[in-house]
Design a protein that fits this description.
Largest sheet: 2 strands, antiparallel
Low-confidence stretches: 3-13, 373-385
Helix content: 55-70%
Mean pLDDT: 77
Order of helices and strands: HHHHEEHHHHHHHHHH
Number of strands: 2
Distance between the termini: 40 Å
Length: about 375
């Protein structure tokens, strides 16, 4: 093959640069992240959890942009570390339900009344109890990091545009709640940088108090501007539909959601696997029909809706493949995915689940690349939109 054909093939396989026309559907990022979170919920193996964190972190580093919501990933990582530390502190102070023989140290035990039987403060701290607490806390920390990856990669405004009309008002509230933390972090970073430029210290209690007031003022101004914009765009207004249609829509939606919950529980429970899948499918069908009917009350239109293309399918499928691999591993060899704390032993890395977990790196290859910050290029018609 000639060098010209090779370069053309490489250019065709390379992911396009992120733009309005080539943007990835925001729902694909959330499905990918929820797949990783589902995989994390099925294991307490620290090696597999660390691999899931590494996969999500690499994809975020390769595909996140400079948008304000993309900076929230670091905050979620710090929150995950805080949750892990709190879980370990609780295990040390309040004890662990896991018995152990390897005593690390002994704390002074506080005597408690009879009505607090089963609870203790202080006492013997074992390596088995700390290992159990570390595994449990790391699973929750990995879930938080996966959610943080979705927040850093998915555009909340585009996700809102993709919601059904019946969920538009709820989606607006969720998007506002999700974007509050990134904007708050950005305000704190901006004010701390301004203090450093003026030669003032940005550390200590006094600096925090002096930064808190401008941050609160900016949050209030943003909320007032948001309320005015929502009112100008007709937020809360709906079309008139017959009362019977509204009642039938509510019954379909509520019954469908209950069916989804019951079907999911049936799939997770060993004795309910027979009726779990049919009930889940019926619940999904009823919920989708209810959302479809509920969309008749929406009086808004969609301008240039995001398309679900082949790259979105690949990104969502990669997260689903990781979740399926972990579910398969938990069913075939539960001891490797959930190693017991007693007896005390080093965890082993199951090869097949670990290898299939690497499928979660696929978005780092197929998702659109973020624009180069330092690259000089001529503005296009797409940028003006």
């Amino acid at each position: 093959m000639s060098p010209v054909h090779t370069s053309r093939l490489a250019a065709g396989l390379r992911a396009p640069e992120d733009s309005r026309a080539a943007a990835l559907h925001a729902g694909a990022w959330w499905l990918w992240a929820l797949g990783l979170a589902t995989a994390a919920s099925r294991t307490t193996n620290p090696l597999l959890l660390a691999l899931l964190v590494a996969v999500s972190g690499y994809v975020v580093a390769a595909r996140r942009t400079d948008a304000p919501w993309a900076r929230a990933y670091g905050t979620f990582v710090k929150l995950a570390l805080l949750v892990l530390a709190i879980r370990l502190v609780f295990a040390v102070l309040l004890g662990s339900p896991i018995p152990g023989t390897h005593t690390l140290f002994v704390l002074p035990e506080v005597p408690l009344p009879d009505w607090a039987q089963g609870v203790r403060l202080g006492g013997r701290v074992t390596a088995e109890g700390l290992l159990f607490a570390f595994q449990d806390g790391m699973r929750l920390a990995t879930l938080l990091i996966c959610v943080g990856a979705a927040n850093a990669l998915a555009n909340p405004a585009r996700l809102l545009k993709s919601l059904p009309g019946a969920l538009y008002e709820v989606g607006v509230a969720v998007v506002v709640a999700m974007t509050f933390a990134p904007h708050l972090v950005a305000d704190v970073q901006r004010l701390r940088a301004a203090r450093r430029l003026r030669g003032r210290s940005d550390r200590g209690v006094r600096a925090i108090l002096q930064v808190a007031l401008p941050v609160l003022e900016g949050a209030l101004e943003r909320s007032v501007a948001l309320a005015a914009a929502m009112d100008a765009r007709g937020y809360g207004r709906s079309a008139r539909v017959p009362r019977s249609v509204r009642l039938f829509t509510n019954v379909l939606t509520l019954g469908g959601l209950l069916g989804v919950c019951a079907g999911t529980y049936g799939l997770l429970a060993a004795e309910g696997a027979v009726f779990g899948l049919p009930l889940l499918l019926l619940g999904l069908a009823a919920a989708l029909a209810g959302l479809r009917l509920g969309g008749r009350r929406a009086v808004r239109t969609r301008y240039r809706p995001d398309r679900w293309g082949p790259r979105a399918w690949l990104v969502a499928a990669s997260g689903g493949a990781v979740a399926a691999a972990m579910l398969w591993g938990a069913a075939s060899d539960p001891q490797l995915l959930n190693p017991p704390a007693v007896p005390l032993a080093a965890p082993e890395l199951p090869l097949w689940p670990a290898a299939l977990t690497l499928l979660g790196l696929l978005p780092a290859v197929v998702a659109p690349r973020p624009p180069d910050a330092g690259a000089d290029r001529a503005p296009t018609k797409e940028d003006s939109r």
